[in-house]
Design a protein that fits this description.
The protein is α/β, with parallel strands linked by helices. It is built from 13 helices and 14 strands. The strands form 2 sheets. Strands 2-1-3-4-5-12-11 form a 7-stranded mixed beta sheet, with helices on both faces. Strands 7-6-8-9-10-13-14 form a 7-stranded mixed beta sheet, with helices on both faces. Helix 3 runs parallel beside helix 4.
Amino acid sequence: MPKPSPRAPFLSSIILAVSVFAALTLAAPALAAQDTGRILYLSGGMEFSPDAFIAGKKAREASPGQAKRIQHEILDSKLFASSAEYAQAIRKAAQDSKLSVIILNPAAKGSAAAFLSLKEARPELRCVAINPQEDDLLIEAAADLIISSDVVSRAYRLARIAKQFGLTRMIFLPGNSGFSSDADRRFQAVLSAACLDFGLEYLAKPAKSETASFLQEEGAKGKSLLWASSLPPALALSQYLKAGNYLIESPAPSLQPDFSALLSIGAVNDREDYPKLLKRFEKAAIDSGFAGRIGTWIYPEAYALGSGVLSFLQKPAGKKITSASMREALEEIGKFCPGTKPQLSQKIDAVSGLRAKNHYYFRQDSYILGRGFFSVPPQDIPGKYQLLAY
């Protein structure tokens, strides 16, 4: 009988290995489709955080086949006032063992504690904070991804708008801006420095002064731009604008909350159709005589970021959040705020000058009703503003 070739077992092994590899390769798409993980998106309700709520609602409606994958849970507005109760609610909502991503929009105080607690049990869980109210170092130590408002570019842009429009003063009304305390201090530092550089007088309301009377007194002098941490009553704001002054952006710029009372626009049935809202508000601004002097964002930050991040993290499963992948994240975000030139940039620490690995600043162009977009390219913002002490 002929002896078996010594190469036969070796060839058999090769054939077996190739067959297994081919089988796994063909099965890979199916495995990837199954191994998707679930995304938990937490927001307030329509009355508390409408634009964040709309982002979650639309994401589920747009992907009916993935309804089980995207879980949108609504937190009681009372929870946002207590960091301990808020953190407890997050931990309770995130008990699903198939959960792979948790997104908080907005991320109130208590987010960092909840993230750290969840990651202690499940290190692989990806935690995302949108517009966090925690101090930067705290949330940066706990989250995989943070996206917050670009307070540096926004403050600089306000001063530049005032200068370009021929104004001479910036009026600042302090209060609860909704920013984290770090972001609020940084915004004020950049705004006051930019005003100085542009030759603008920077006037902050004294702590004991009554807002309406202060605004009326200073507004009567004209030629000023208002930044208000909390917008004043519609009557006071109307009188201020009629005196020839301007209001461009609020801390959370959005047509509906910013200008409904000022422009006497009642309940809106098409709250989720932002371009349609713009047409209605722009006409009202023109009819009221405020065209060219009031501005905001067409697509609110909470909606654009909530929608974009949900879309970005749905595909593919297990995607790593890196500076390279954030380019794709920006593409997804841009789909939900078309025409506004959205930008994402790594947050730069003012003390060290280092870029945060997991914290990104978001901005889009302001839209001035009756006038159009006002754009300031990122490269036109002097780098020194990133390093201002605050």
